[in-house]
Amino acid sequence: MYETLEDLKKLGALVITLMRLFNVREGFTKKDDTLPPKFLRDPLPEGPAKGQVAHLEPMLENYYNLRGWDEDGIPIKQTLKKFELDNLVY
User: Is position 90 within any domain?
Assistant: First the structure.
């Protein structure tokens, strides 16, 4: 059933989408998608990103887009259809 790396990637994406649907159902929203305050406030002390802090909003926007979710982090109809989950919601 899951024989290739691509199969496993699809399975992982399905699981993440199912987890997101569960969290949305339970009342989680975009405001719950955050990082510890330290990452948003304190610049990194060393490494290639030294002196930088995480800019959460563009990171979330990109992540949601890659996952096939809307701007609020809710899976869009096309994503649900891709995983044959469109009968669960809407």
Answer: no
Domain assignment of residue 41, given as a range: 5-82
Using an 8 Å Cβ cutoff, are 87 and 20 in contact?
no
What pLDDT does 88 receive? Answer: 79
In a domain, 33, yes or no: yes
Question: Residue 89 has what pLDDT?
Answer: 66
Q: Could you tell me if residue 89 is inside a domain?
A: no
Q: Structural domain tally of the chain? A: 1
DSSP string, 32-55: G----HHHHHSPPSSSTTTT----
For the chain, the distance separating the N- and C-terminal CA atoms, rounded to the nearest angstrom, is 29
Q: Return all residues near 76 (Cβ < 8 A) that are at least 6 apart.
A: 68, 69, 70
